[in-house]
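Operator note (shift B, R.M.): manual run for Interleukin-12 subunit alpha requested after the automated queue skipped it. Running by hand, logging everything below so the morning shift can see what happened. Input copied straight from the record, untouched. If output looks odd, do not overwrite the archive copy; leave it for review.
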Amino acid sequence: MDHLFSGFDCTQQNAEVHIRTQTVSACTPQNSNCAHSAVLNIDENECLQRILEDLHYYLETFRAFSNSELTKSVVRSIDELMQNCFSVSAMDNSPAKVSMGQQKSFQERLQLCKVLKGFNIRTITINRVFNHILSK
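Run finished. Output pasted below as returned.
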């Protein structure tokens, strides 16, 4: 995927994290001080629903970019996670409503870089939540 980012250094760009679903606040322990509590209380159903909404957002965003490498790797991985953890599949859905066309402008590629970095950050949150739930 390096060719998608030719002309700029993606590692130097800021991440763009999807915050509309409020996943972090939904998955943050309520009424708990981590330093003094071994039990972290979160509303698992609400947290998992927010994670699923995030996954749908990123899936559609990456699909809209219409890149075969993204589809083979990132989109497929998101779909597998949705199937295995939420019993939901989005791979058979029609293409995203917004298409970015065949030729990707510099701004579109820059935006993709930032969204991929944001998705990377979100996957850390998702991983921590799953580990917490499974450790119970």
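Quick read of the result: The chain has a mean pLDDT of 82. The helical segments are 23-26, 44-64, 68-86, 106-134.
Leaving this for review. - R.M.
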